[in-house]
Amino acid sequence: MIEEGKSTTRPVNEPELRLSAALGDLAVRFGQVEELLAEFHRRSAHRESVIDRLHEENQRLRAGIGRLILEPAIADLIRLYDQLDREARRLGAEARDQRLLSSFIDDVAQILDRCGIDVFSAEPGDPFDRDRHRPVAVVACHDESRHNTVAEVIFAGFIERDTGRVRRPVQARFHQFTAARAEPGQPGDETGSP
């Protein structure tokens, strides 16, 4: 039983006080170390993100410089492709010469492929696509369903594989619907002629 007025706490000795103070000081120091480590990790993660971003930017710049250096050669290869294609079409029936020109066309297309340029075309009847086609002429037609469709491809198109940018659209002739006119004096003739 505890008598009134007497303390229930036991007397604290000097070594326990020092140990308790040392543990409190150690806990504070561990807290500071944790804060420093957290700050170090935050800064480290930031540095890593900066390094990754700079690496990506460096790669894009290197690719751009490579593209810039290749630019004149690519333009010349596209012209060569067009000339060979035009000549192969002109020869038409002369199969041996056409096969030879076709192999040269394939070689040029492979070189362009290694430069990151893809050749693309269109088929007769394909609808007009502003981003991928350039009309060079129109062909009158009386079938409204063929209006604004490819009539004939004149030159193939070229697209950059990495960016998807159309370097040159397909050049083609396109159908244009024109209503059929009635003969003079026939039903539907609005000129009033006999």
Tally of DSSP helical segments? 2
Strand count = 6
Q: What percent strand? A: 15-25%
The H-and-E topology, N to C, reads as HHEEEEEE
Low-confidence stretches: 185-194
Average pLDDT score: 84
Helix content: 40-55%
Q: How would you classify the helix and strand content by structural class?
A: alpha+beta
Terminal CA distance:
138 Å
Strand order of the biggest β-sheet: 1-4-5
Radius of gyration from the alpha-carbon trace, in angstroms: 40 Å
What spatial form do the alpha-carbon principal axes imply?
Answer: elongated
Could you describe the largest sheet, including whether it forms a barrel?
A: 3 strands, antiparallel
Could you explain how this protein is built, in words?
This protein has 194 residues and is of the alpha+beta class. Helix content is 51%, strand content 18%. It contains 2 helices and 6 strands. It has helices at residues 14-91, 95-114; strands spanning 117-120, 133-141, 150-155, 157-160, 166-168, 170-177. Strands 1-4-5 form a 3-stranded antiparallel beta sheet. Helix 1 (14-91) runs antiparallel to helix 2. The protein starts with 13 loop residues before the first helix and ends in a 17-residue tail after the last strand. Residues 185-194 have low confidence and may be disordered.
